[in-house]
Design a protein that fits this description.
The structure holds 2 protein chains of 2 kinds. By secondary structure, chain A is an alpha/beta fold. Helices cover 28% and strands 23% of the residues of chain A. Chain A folds into 2 domains: 33-53 and 312-438, Lyase, Ornithine Decarboxylase, Chain A, domain 1, CATH 2.40.37; 55-310, Alpha-Beta Barrel (TIM Barrel), CATH 3.20.20. In chain A, the strands form 3 sheets. In chain A, strands 5, 15, 16, 17, 18, 19, 20, 21 and 22 form a 9-stranded mixed sheet that branches. Chain A has an 8-stranded parallel barrel with strand order 6-7-8-9-10-12-13-14, surrounded by 7 helices. Chain A is globular. By secondary structure, chain B is α+β, with helices and mostly antiparallel strands. Chain B has one domain. Chain B is built from 3 helices and 6 strands. In chain B, helix 2 (43-53) crosses helix 3 (58-74). The chains are: A alpha/beta, B alpha+beta. The complex binds pyridoxal-5'-phosphate. The site of pyridoxal-5'-phosphate has 16 residues of chain A, from helix 11.
Chain lengths: 452, 84
C-alpha cells in the first residue's frame, strides 16, 4: 500500500469571538513556482536561503509607474535609488528601462559610473560628499543636490579651479503634515533656510541652479503630503524666476511611495490599504499643473522611487530547520533565514507562504531565524500550515533594502539569482565564502601561532 | 495514559470537553492518534501504526507524538495512569 503524505498531528483550542493576534490566514495555496521556475529546483541547484529576483516584475513595475506619471504630465524622468538595491543586474534593468541613477555616497556614485551611466544622468544626494566626490561630480556634470551649507561652500571653492559651473539643486525639507518631519536633510522651507541657500547659489558663478529636490519620507501612506511638497517646491521655483529671472530645469520629488508590504502594527495587508503609484502620481502632477508654472513651461518632474518599484520583485526562499514548542505552549519554527539577511523583518510582517502543498490545518507560530541571538525573529506571530523539517517557504516582497543593508553576521550571505523574462535563471551575486572574507583580514606576526 | 472518557471526538475533527465547555479542532492525523489513545494504545504502538501508514521516519514521529501528547495534557484532555 502506498504511504500517505505525513502531516504532524495538531490540535488547537477554538476561541470564538476572540480577536486573533496571529492575524488572518492570508494564503491558502502554496507558492511552488516563481516565474514558472520551481522553488524546489531553485533550492536544489542554488542552495538555501536564496534571494530570487524577477526581472519581468521589475520591468512591469517601472513601466506602469512611468505610465502613471507620463499620462498625467508631459516631462517625467525616473532615477533609480541605488541604496534600495544596488546589485548591478538590478540597476542595469532600470537603466535599460530609461531610469537615471540616484546615489548617496562616493561608492554608489562609482557604481553608477561602472554601470555605464553618463555622469550628467547621476543625481548625487546625501550629506556626505567628500572633496574628491565633489571634484568628480562637478567634472562629470552630475546633478549635485546640496544638503548643507558646508557643502555649498565646498562647491564654491572647488568649481572655479575646475573651470566648471557645478550643476546643483538644493534639498528642501518642509512641513507636509507628516510627522516626524524629516528636517535633518537639506534646507528648511518654512524658516527661510531654503531661500538663504538659493540666494547664495544665485549670487555665485561657481554654480548653476538647475533644480529643486525634496524627499519627504519613506513608506509614505499619504499622497496629499506629496501634493503639499510639490506645491511648496513650485512656489520656490516661481519665486526664483520672479527674483532672478532664472528658470530651474527640474523638480525632483524624491522617493518614499509605500510598497505593498504590511507594516508592523497595521491590521490589514498592505495590498488592501496602501495607496498605489497612480494615487501618488495624481497628487504630485495635480499640484504642479495647478501651480503658477506656465502650462507650456512646466519643469521636468524627477522621481527617485525605490521600494515601490522593487519590493514585490524579489522573494527570499528558506528552509525549515526545526519545529519547537516554547515553554508557554506556543509553536515555534526555526528557519535558515535570519534577520541579518532580512533586515526588513524589523519593519514589516512579511507574507510567508509554504512552497509545497499543505492542508487547511494551521497553527499559530513564532518564526525564528538561525542566529544564536534573541533578536533573530522573522515573524512574532503568524498562522502557518504544519511545516515539517526540510520544507521550503517563500518570504515575499523583500526586494528593497535587504540586499543592501544585509550583514555578514554569523552566517555567510547567500546567492542571489535573477529570473529573466524568458524564465532563465542567472546567478547575479555569488554566495560568500570563508576565503573571500579572509582576504580582508590580516593577522599580526606575533598572533600567527598558539598552543592549546 | 488515556484520553478522558467523556471527551467527544467527532469525525470532522471537532473535539469537545463537556467538563470545561472548551472545544478544539484537530487535523486527521491528530484525530487518529486521539482515537488510539482513547483505546489505551501504548505510544510505541501508535508510533508504529503511523510509521506504517505515512511517509515519514521514526525520529520525526517520536518527536511530533511526544509534542502532541504534551499539548493534550496542557489542554487537560488526557488522564494520567492511576488517576480517575
Ligand atoms: C534621497 C532619497 N531618494 C530616494 C529614496 C528612495 O526611497 P523609497 O525607497 O522610500 O522610495 C531615498 C531613501 O531613503 C532617499 O533618501
Amino acid at each position: 500500500m502506498e504511504k500517505q503524505r505525513y502531516e504532524r498531528p495538531m490540535i488547537k483550542k477554538l476561541e470564538s469571538n476572540m480577536p486573533n493576534k496571529f492575524g488572518m490566514r492570508t494564503e491558502y495555496r502554496p507558492m511552488t513556482h516563481i516565474d514558472n521556475v520551481a522553488v524546489k529546483d531553485l533550492i536544489d541547484e542554488y542552495g538555501s536561503p536564496l534571494f530570487v529576483i524577477s526581472e519581468k516584475t521589475i520591468r512591469n513595475n517601472i513601466r506602469s509607474a512611468r505610465k502613471a506619471f507620463e499620462t498625467r504630465y508631459p516631462k517625467v524622468q525616473f532615477a533609480w535609488s541605488y541604496k534600495t538595491n544596488y546589485l548591478d543586474a538590478v540597476c542595469r534593468t532600470f537603466h535599460q528601462e530609461g531610469s537615471w541613477a540616484e546615489v548617496v555616497s562616493g561608492f554608489e556614485y562609482d557604481k553608477a559610473l561602472h554601470n555605464g551611466v553618463d555622469g550628467s544622468k547621476i543625481i548625487f544626494n546625501g550629506p556626505d560628499k567628500t572633496e574628491e566626490d565633489l571634484n568628480k561630480a562637478i567634472k562629470n556634470n552630475s546633478l549635485i543636490h546640496i544638503d548643507h551649507l558646508d557643502e555649498l561652500y565646498a562647491i564654491s571653492e572647488i568649481a572655479p579651479g575646475l573651470n566648471k559651473k557645478a550643476q546643483v539643486a538644493i534639498r528642501v525639507n518642509m512641513d507636509t503634515g507628516i510627522y516626524p518631519m524629516w528636517d535633518r536633510f537639506g534646507f528648511n522651507y518654512e524658516n527661510g533656510q531654503a531661500w538663504d541657500a538659493l540666494n547664495k547659489i544665485m549670487r555665485t558663478d561657481a554654480m548653476e541652479l538647475v533644480g529643486l529636490h525634496t524627499h519627504i519620507g519613506t513608506f509614505m501612506l499619504s499622497p496629499n503630503a506629496y501634493a503639499v511638497a510639490a506645491g511648496k517646491l513650485a512656489d520656490l521655483a516661481i519665486g526664483i524666476k520672479d527674483k532672478y529671472g532664472h528658470e530651474i530645469k527640474y523638480i525632483d520629488m524624491g522617493g518614499g511611495f509605500a510598497s505593498k508590504n504590511k507594516l508592523k502594527g497595521t491590521y490589514l495587508p498592505g495590498t488592501d490599504i496602501n495607496p498605489s503609484v497612480n494615487d501618488f502620481a495624481e497628487a504630485i502632477t495635480g499640484a504642479l499643473i495647478n501651480s503658477n508654472f506656465k502650462p507650456d513651461n512646466l519643469p521636468l518632474l524627477i522621481l527617485e522611487t525605490g521600494r515601490a518599484l522593487i519590493d514585490d520583485a524579489a522573494n527570499l526562499l528558506g528552509t525549515v530547520i526545526s519545529n519547537k514548542r516554547l515553554s508557554d505552549g506556543r509553536r515555534s519554527t526555526i528557519l535558515d533565514v535570519g534577520v541579518n539577511i532580512l533586515f526588513t523583518s524589523f519593519w514589516y510582517d512579511h507574507k510567508i507562504t509554504p512552497a509545497q502543498p499543505f492542508t487547511q490545518y494551521a497553527e499559530d507560530t513564532v518564526l525564528y531565524g538561525p542566529l544564536c541571538m534573541n533578536i533573530d525573529v522573522i515573524r512574532e506571530n503568524i498562522s502557518l500550515p504544519l511545516l515539517n523539517k526540510g520544507d521550503h517557504v517563500v518570504i515575499q516582497h523583500v526586494g528593497a533594502y535587504n540586499m543592501t543593508q544585509w550583514m555578514q553576521f554569523i552566517t555567510l550571505r547567500p546567492r542571489i539569482v535573477m529570473i529573466d523574462p524568458e524564465n532563465n535563471v542567472h546567478v547575479i551575486r555569488e554566495r560568500e565564502t570563508l576565503d573571500r572574507l579572509l582576504e580582508f583580514e590580516k593577522v599580526p606576526d606575533h598572533l600567527k601561532t598558539f598552543d592549546l | 495514559m488515556k484520553i478522558k472518557n467523556n471527551i467527544a471526538v467527532s469525525d470532522s475533527g471537532f473535539v469537545f470537553n463537556p467538563a470545561t465547555g472548551e472545544s478544539f479542532s484537530a487535523n486527521p492525523i491528530g484525530m487518529e492518534i486521539m482515537e488510539l489513545l482513547k483505546k489505551g494504545t501504548p505510544t510505541q504502538e501508535i508510533s508504529n501504526t503511523i510509521l506504517e501508514k505515512y511517509e515519514t521516519d521514526a525520529p520525526t514521529i517520536d518527536k511530533d507524538l511526544h509534542d502532541f501528547i504534551q499539548i493534550l495534557k496542557q489542554y487537560t484532555l488526557i488522564e494520567e495512569h492511576g488517576k480517575a
